[in-house]
Design a protein that fits this description.
The chain is α+β, with helices and mostly antiparallel strands and 68 residues long. It is built from 1 helix and 3 strands; from the N terminus they run βαββ. It has a single domain (4-64), classed as Dodecin subunit-like (2-Layer Sandwich). It is elongated. The two termini are 13 Å apart.
């Protein structure tokens, strides 16, 4: 029986939402294996002087737990 664990991660990017999600996956992949999916729970932008300065996401990352 496969066990799936879910962690919540906050990531950001100055380029856009898609890049923020990629940053999330890139960073989590450094320490977590077997990532199955990423659910984007929330998105936001940071604004300064009426301009968007960065994009942020809150993601739930699901991964299979090894049976070792």
């Amino acid at each position: 029986m496969a066990i799936v664990k879910v962690i919540e991660v906050i990531a950001s990017s100055e380029k856009g939402i898609e890049d923020a999600i990629q940053q999330c996956v890139t960073e989590v992949s450094k320490t977590i294996r077997n990532i199955d999916s990423v659910y984007v729970k929330d998105t936001k932008v940071h604004v300064k002087d009426g301009k968007i300065t960065s994009f942020g996401v809150i993601c739930k990352v699901s991964f299979r737990v090894s049976e070792n």
